[in-house]
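Q: Sequence in, structure out?
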Amino acid sequence: MSTTSQKHRDFVAEPMGEKPVTALSGIGDVLGGKLKVQGFDKAYVVLGQFLLLKKDAEMFSDWLKDASGANSRQAGTCAQCLKEWCDTFL
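A: Exactly. Output:
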């Protein structure tokens, strides 16, 4: 299994609260800006989409690639981040 970034570890270590979408692992300023334009301005809004897709990492990754232009690595990283957060807090 690959190692996770500090950003990933920080995100899954605490409740989500009002964190911006760019707090998600795999989502930087460019992808975050594209998501914000579509109304996905907070991490919890993206989590809602993840949950609507029944925590299916592949379906979520496909959605994120379509919605923001993320590449497979970025989408997979974000999906894994949300999965681990859910495993810890839900």
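The helical segments are 6-12, 29-37, 43-52, 57-68, 72-89.
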